[in-house]
Amino acid sequence: MKLDDVLGDLLHNPLNEFTNRRNAKAKELKAAGQRELADEVTALKKPTVPVWAVNQLARGNKAALERLHETGQGVVKAQQGAVSGRRNAAPELRSASDRLQRELEVAVRTVADRLRTDGHAADEATLRRVQEILRLGAVSGGETWDRLRAGTLIDEPQAGEDMLTAAFAAPERTAVNQAANTEKRLALEHAQRTAKLNEEEAQQAEQTAKRLREEADRMAADARRANDKARQAEKESERAAATAKASRDAVRKLGGR
């Protein structure tokens, strides 16, 4: 038998029976020659009401706990995207946080019902502590989550024990703002690149238009010169024809044909 086995059994029973059951189990272990384990059991402190309550959720509604962990890891992933500057990270983080919050609200209502059923107060302060325990367990993925999942959590985890607490509350807003600022920066950089490309295209189009205009002007000048030459040739042709006609007329007058 291990300490977690004993702890799981103690936490599965009503909280007001914890101390008596702990002492009885320690005595039983000593009698069985397991003194070291008996000493560990004796050292166990009675958990707080919120800790006891979340252990009941772990034992009675594992599906809800798994959904919490899944959505919590979704927030972790979204936050990592925000930190790395991924596009659309801000709305992804907000959406992931909203999903986790909805799951937390469902889980807290379930815990509140269990507290009332067992005669414990389900006041706002208690439920707020319950939610914080569940939140930390959902995003930590470490020992807090392992114990919560097994229903053997004995102490309330404190904010900052998990490295991802910054995904929520004021740090969450900071992450969202950072992501939003990153998106703005990326959008600005994209706009600047686009503007630069458009400017380069405009310059190239202007240069092309200038070159074509110069070619058109040269062609027009060539056409004018060719037209002048054609008119000159036509005049010379007319003079030659007139000269030829005059010569023919002179021949006829002289009796020639």
Can you describe this structure?
By secondary structure, the protein is mostly helical. It has a domain at 1-46. The chain has helices at 3-12, 18-31, 35-42, 49-60, 62-84, 89-117, 124-140, 143-150, 169-253. α5 (62-84) crosses α9, α6 packs across α7 and α7 crosses α8. Residues 161-176 have low confidence and may be disordered.
**Mean pLDDT score, rounded?**
82
Low-confidence stretches: 161-176
How many helices in DSSP terms? 9
Question: How helix-rich are the residues, as a percent range?
Answer: over 70%
Structural class by helix and strand composition: mainly alpha
Largest sheet: none
Proportion of β residues?
under 5%
Number of strands: 0
Distance between the termini: 146 Å
Globally, the shape reads: rod-shaped
> What string, H for helix and E for strand, traces the elements in order?
HHHHHHHHH
- Supply Rg: 45 Å
Task: Give the gist of this structure.
With 257 residues, the chain is an all-alpha fold. The protein has helices at residues 3-12, 18-31, 35-42, 49-60, 62-84, 89-117, 124-140, 143-150, 169-253. The chain is 80% helix and 0% strand.
Topology (elements, then pairings):
Layout: H1 3-12, H2 18-31, H3 35-42, H4 49-60, H5 62-84, H6 89-117, H7 124-140, H8 143-150, H9 169-253
